[in-house]
Amino acid sequence: MLSQLSLLDGFSILIFWFIVWHRWSRQCGGSMSELPDEKPNLPDNPPMVSIIVPARNEEKTIERCVRSLLAQDYPRFEVIVVDDCSEDETGPILAQLGNTDSRLQVVQGKPLPEGWMGKAHAIMQGYPQSKGDWLLFTDADTYHSPSLLSRVMGFVLPSPISLVTVSGKQERSEIGVTLVNLVVWSYIFMVSDRKGLADSKSRQGLIYGQYVLMTREAYEAVGTHAAVREYSSTDVSLGYLAKLKGFLVLGIDAGGALKTTMYSSFTEAYRGWSRSLVNGIWTALGPKLGSFTLLLLTVGLLFFWVVPWLTWLGGMETNNDVQMLVGSLQILAVFCVSWMKSGGFFKAILDLILLPVSFLFFMAMVGSGLVGAWFRQGTIWKGRIVPTAKRLPPWKPEAARPRKH
User: Fold this and answer.
1) Cβ burial, residue 239 (10 Å; 0-12/13-18/19+)
2) CATH architecture type of domain 31-168+208-264
3) What element of type H or E holds 6?
């Protein structure tokens, strides 16, 4: 049967398995630190940590988030929540919480000025109230296990790292949200470079906006969130500028110690990811090149995630053993990538089956996101137009600046 393989068939199989090797080399094999389970070895007088939470229309998640932050067992911290002109019950919920714990400070946000992203503006209103040597920026839809901050700080303090980003688990949601999240996180896995995050010479990184911890020195040297006020991808832009200044960055996988519910409905997930897909690539490459690249990646992912199944099914229908073999080897390659991403055998099988279906949503999100962004010169999020034209500065990094400890 192998002798019947055409040159094109052989080449396509090699391409698929090259992708497997490349994703393994850039995403796995110790590319991201695991959060230690043991009790952290903190100094007697650990540095103060100021936790800043921007919140706009977060009535569904804000109470759980704040209570989990106040329950941290780290010895020295404060929580500052900025109510970013919420139009729901976020404000009253925060007011009630603020009366129960002196470590919680609620800041009433001011209207968004022109030229600012909402998240950056909210954080910049909480930052002047902070006293910490370290600053933790975390989203209002997160849940933090009681030992999370202690374990992260215990891991980081002995190191030369100045910025830490922590990934966690997405909590289960309705099937529509699950399908949308699956295809987008698979896309992120395919195009990102975890190993590049720790490489001071690489512009590539994977900053998780749900948990960004950095020293005050690094934050102020970067220019605070005022420096990223015009970038639609606020968190990734902050990490990029930190690396540009030479600060060392670390990624940590916290597993279930950090949980987030980014979207509670299919409509929210569809609109949110449509916005983020465009924002991310336009911030990096600009509108024209970014749009072309996103469309090109969409076509490439179509061939990687969908075409192998069509090849295999076509071979089975026509009783073509060679075609079935080609499709099988390609599907096996996709399975290996899914296994790397999910970390579980059975989860990878489920993802492998669902990806062709969820890719339909991905194509729709890319199309509607690009059309909307070009039409409005920006994307819409939580009732606000988010401009997307600002592009990151060229990659000319300064010499590495290890933190003194």
Assistant:
1) buried
2) Alpha-Beta Complex (3.90)
3) none
- C-alpha distances in angstroms, 287 versus 26, 54, 231, 373, 392? 27, 27, 13, 9, 12
Give CA separation, 259 vs 25, 313, 350, 357, 391, in Å: 27, 38, 21, 26, 31
Which residue shows structure tokens 């698979």? 186
Euclidean distance between CA atoms 243 and 228, whole angstroms: 14
pLDDT digits (tens, 9 = 90+) for 153-191: 999 999 999 999 998 888 867 888 999 999 999 999 999
* CA pair distance 231, 237, nearest whole angstrom: 7
Q: How confident is the model over 326-378, as pLDDT tens digits?
A: 999 999 999 999 999 888 899 999 999 999 999 999 999 999 999 988 887 76
Structure tokens that stand for 382 in this block:
């939580």
Neighbours of 76 (CB within 10 A): 16
Q: What is the pLDDT of residue 53?
A: 97
Pick from 296, 285, 275: nearest CA to 390: 285
Residue 288 and residue 356 in contact, taking contact as beta carbons nearer than 8 Å:
no
Q: What is the mean pLDDT of residues 53-79?
A: 95
- For residues 150 and 72, the answer to whether their CB atoms sit within 8 Å is yes
Each domain of the chain, given as residue ranges in start order, spans 2-26+281-387, 31-168+208-264
Q: DSSP for 102-153?
A: TTEEEEEPPPPPTT--HHHHHHHHHGGG---SEEEEE-TTEEE-TTHHHHHH
Mean per-residue pLDDT of the chain: 89
Query: What are the two backbone dihedrals, phi and then psi, of residue 401, each rounded to the nearest 5 degrees?
Result: -120, 80
Output the six-digit token pair for 52.
């800043």
Question: Residue 30 has what pLDDT?
Answer: 55
